[in-house]
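Handover notes (outgoing to incoming on-call)

Open items:
1. NAD(P)-binding domain-containing protein: sequence verified, structure written out, both below. Nothing else pending on this one.
2. Nothing else urgent.
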Amino acid sequence: MASADQLQNVRPMFELRNQNYIVTGGAQGIGFACTRAICEMGGNVAVFDVQEKPVEEFSTLGKTFGVKTIYIQMDVTKEESIKTAFDKALNEFGTIDGCVPAAGIAIDKPFLEQTWDEFTKIQDINVRGTFFVAQLTARQIKKQGTKGSMVLIASQSAHIALPGYRMAAYNASKGAILMLSKALAVELAPHGIRVNTISPGFVDSEMTRTVRESKSSKREGEQMWLAPPNQRLSTQNDLTGAVVYLLSDAARHTTAADIQITGGLHAGTIDGLISYEE
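NAD(P)-binding domain-containing protein structure tokens:
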């Protein structure tokens, strides 16, 4: 490491070359965006997902960026499935340097109507799946005696509750992820493992569009687009730079941090929006 008064070049700090990562939920959406970004920066990625196959572009990443990628169909709600997938990834790569547990689901439904099974499914995927993928990753990094980094996916829903968005079970799950990252950052720091989160705002995705279109009021749905001060939804491209930063040596002194990527929604909303009563 350079001395305190010796400046280093910044660009090389962001490289992820010769590093091996696990991304859950990487078949599509935010998980795939993170996978592609890691590959672009030189990292190898094992994608875990319940889908039978990933988006078509996944098959081109290895050749495009000169990295190794593998796809493992599995289920993050099942302990043996997680362990089997992890062992396959470790056998393929030899070492593991970090993870991005991005598998997650949401439901927009009034609190008084949400069911036991709906709540359980959200917690199983969003929280327990993240917890045990992170645990296996941390155990392996400790065993290797190397350093590592994990980026967990929290949400604006871990920080704020917006009128009209009936997502209590999802909010609870993302609040759990935010606190989990802080607890792990403290506990794993002696092992050289950093743990951080990103908190996206509403992301323009198939899931978000479905929620928007299901709103009883067109105005209510439009708030997802217009409420942030930047007056637009986040895109996957808004998130990937932060993920690369947090995984890389550029963030080597950053742990227990949360980067809110909301277009400013966490600080305030556009006047006149989100002011109605249900």
